[in-house]
Design goal:
Layout (H helix, E strand, L loop, with lengths): L1 H17 L15 H26 L1 E2 L2 E2 L4 H12 L9 H11 L2 H29 L2
Antiparallel strand pairs: 1-2
Length: about 140
């Protein structure tokens, strides 16, 4: 289990570093590097690993399918009514059903880590760059 999580983390680091566009000019102070984003990556990844499977299970998406008389069954009923009797591929119900059926902790962790990095990149770094450009 640990090797799988470590493998996903290392793959994420390698892939994210290969698609970097360019380095900032040396005279600018860039406080939006990987080390500043690391607490967000670890925090969001850990929260997703600890909170993702129980939340999906509480909603009613289990490894055996959708549980009867749950929020998942209500969501499926509404989706099927809206789409004329079937649940389409790619809908929220089908995505959550696949999460409940076969996704493990390491996948939830990698989704959380990516979300944490994006949160840092777009919200924290975006605000600091906008505020520093007004000076």
């Amino acid at each position: 289990m640990f090797r799988g999580t470590l493998g996903f983390f290392i793959s994420y680091l390698l892939l994210s570093s290969t698609f970097a566009t360019s380095d900032p000019p040396p005279d600018e102070d860039d406080s939006c590097g990987f080390m500043e984003a690391l607490p967000y990556i670890v925090g969001f990844g850990g929260a997703a690993m600890l909170g993702g499977p129980p939340v999906v299970g509480i909603l009613g998406f289990t490894t055996n399918g959708i549980a009867a008389k749950s929020i998942a069954s209500l969501m499926m009923k509404i989706t099927a009514f809206y789409y004329g009797g079937s649940v389409s591929a790619g809908s929220l119900v089908s995505i959550l059903q696949s999460f409940g059926a076969k996704i493990g902790l390491s996948t939830f962790g990698s989704f959380g880590a990516k979300t944490g990095y994006d949160f840092h990149k777009y919200f924290v770094c975006g605000k600091s760059k906008k505020s520093s450009s007004k000076d």
